[in-house]
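User: Sequence recovery, please. Input:
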């Protein structure tokens, strides 16, 4: 890793013999300050220097859904879940299904086609509560549809195939564009999409409720406010920080770029203060066109970057996963851009999911080294120690995964007093199935162990204003 302005070079295949004195945390000879760890893939008796996972997880999934038209494609991200409606969305070929434990599967959009397929799906923010699905297609079609509507409300034709879609996790107050009641402050959703050429589009969506549509005969609007041309190849991954202040993009050009949302939007919109929104008649919005330099940080990997995950309990911490020529999980500090640690996993990283109750992160793997039996692994932070792993038989690969929480029994709908319990992850598998695996099955919160929540760096922690009050996530 070498610092070049705001560019950090990281990663690569782990050396056969790790170039680090683990007991003394000596830096690698190439000068990187990031710590390097290696994942255990041995199936024999563990040694003292390379222990096997200490926590036992069920090897078999507790539920498997047949997915006959699931596309075996690293670049597709066709799973999404909304806690508002408690539905799992699955893209199979060109058809989108929703599934729930009580009602089973139901096709809600698309038709069988051999020349076009779904590439990415995403539910709108929990805060917005409207369960809008953004659906990207290989023919460049972007479709917006609520699970409560019979037909799609919007369809936008992009100039190139859509590869990724991702909603901002918070809503934003903006003046309404409703021609019958213009300028009134309304909650809007923000949507970013990436295409096959590496361009990122930033959309704003105003989505009135069904009764409002009936009253005004106006379905809402979607409009483009920014276009970011920075990546030189296909966008593979998009992810938001929990507070919506940042989003990150991963590309097939081996770059991961971090963006400050306010810098992309120019004007700062306070999502909780209605007094700051003037009820003026909205005018047409000029599209911002951004290029190199728009990013806050740029991290160079040695393979495509699909898996990106911001830590939900430690602001300023983000993890990325590299493809087949990288085979590593990297951890970065979003404020300084510093590389904090790297875990060499000997596998293509297809998804990263942070625990919300433990100081741990789960990873799923695609193509692996020949003797690598695991397709799911859990690591502690900041020790970067492998604490659990799940092997899959044969040459099956995990294509993509998302978190799937468990709800208290007899809960019919989500409300502000009831929250889902962390439980499992849902994995799209190369054998054309969707597997439900228990990962964090115990209730309650537990300490993660260790100190230094940003990589053991007291300097970084003082910059972030972090108080060391133990390791329990509160």
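Assistant: Recovered sequence (474 residues):
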């Amino acid at each position: 890793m070498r610092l070049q302005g705001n560019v950090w070079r990281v990663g690569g295949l782990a050396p056969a013999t790790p170039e680090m004195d683990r007991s003394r945390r000596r830096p690698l000879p190439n000068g990187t300050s990031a710590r390097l760890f290696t994942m255990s893939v041995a199936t024999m008796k563990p040694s003292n220097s390379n222990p096997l996972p200490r926590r036992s997880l069920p090897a078999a999934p507790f539920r498997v859904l047949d997915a006959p038209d699931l596309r075996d494609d690293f670049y597709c991200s066709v799973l999404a879940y909304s806690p508002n409606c408690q539905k799992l969305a699955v893209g199979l070929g060109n058809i989108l299904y929703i599934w729930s434990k009580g009602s089973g599967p139901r096709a809600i959009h698309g038709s069988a086609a051999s020349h076009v397929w779904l590439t990415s799906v995403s539910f709108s923010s929990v805060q917005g509560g409207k369960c809008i699905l953004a659906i990207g297609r290989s023919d460049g079609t972007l479709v917006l549809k609520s699970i409560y509507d019979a037909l799609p409300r919007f369809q936008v034709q992009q100039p190139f195939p859509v590869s990724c879609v991702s909603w901002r996790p918070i809503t934003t107050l903006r003046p309404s564009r409703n021609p019958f009641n213009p300028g009134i402050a309304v909650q809007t959703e923000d949507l970013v999409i990436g295409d096959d050429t590496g361009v990122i589009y930033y959309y704003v969506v105003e989505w009135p409720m069904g009764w409002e549509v009936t009253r005004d005969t106006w379905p809402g609007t979607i409009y483009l406010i920014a276009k970011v041309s920075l990546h030189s190849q296909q966008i593979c991954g998009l992810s938001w920080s929990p507070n919506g202040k940042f989003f990150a993009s991963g590309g097939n050009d081996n770059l991961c770029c971090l963006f400050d949302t306010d810098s992309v939007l120019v004007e700062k919109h306070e999502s909780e203060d209605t007094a700051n929104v003037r009820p003026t008649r909205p005018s047409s919005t000029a599209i911002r066109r951004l290029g190199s330099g728009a990013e806050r940080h740029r991290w160079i990997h040695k393979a495509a970057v699909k898996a990106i995950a911001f830590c939900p309990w430690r602001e300023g911490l983000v993890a990325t996963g590299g493809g087949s020529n990288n085979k590593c999980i990297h951890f970065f500090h979003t404020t300084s851009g510093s590389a904090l640690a790297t875990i060499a996993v000997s596998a293509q990283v297809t998804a990263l999911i942070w625990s919300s109750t433990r100081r741990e992160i789960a990873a799923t793997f695609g193509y692996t080294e020949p003797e690598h039996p695991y397709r799911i692994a859990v690591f502690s932070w900041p020790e970067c120690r492998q604490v659990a792993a799940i092997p899959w038989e044969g040459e099956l690969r995990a294509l993509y995964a998302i978190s799937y929480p468990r709800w208290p029994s007899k809960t019919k709908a989500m409300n502000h007093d009831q929250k889902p319990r962390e439980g499992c992850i849902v994995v799209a598998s190369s054998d054309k199935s969707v597997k439900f695996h228990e990962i964090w099955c115990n209730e309650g919160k537990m300490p993660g162990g260790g100190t230094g929540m940003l990589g053991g760096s007291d300097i970084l922690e003082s910059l972030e204003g972090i108080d060391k009050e133990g390791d329990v996530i509160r």
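The first strand starts at residue 3 and ends at 4.
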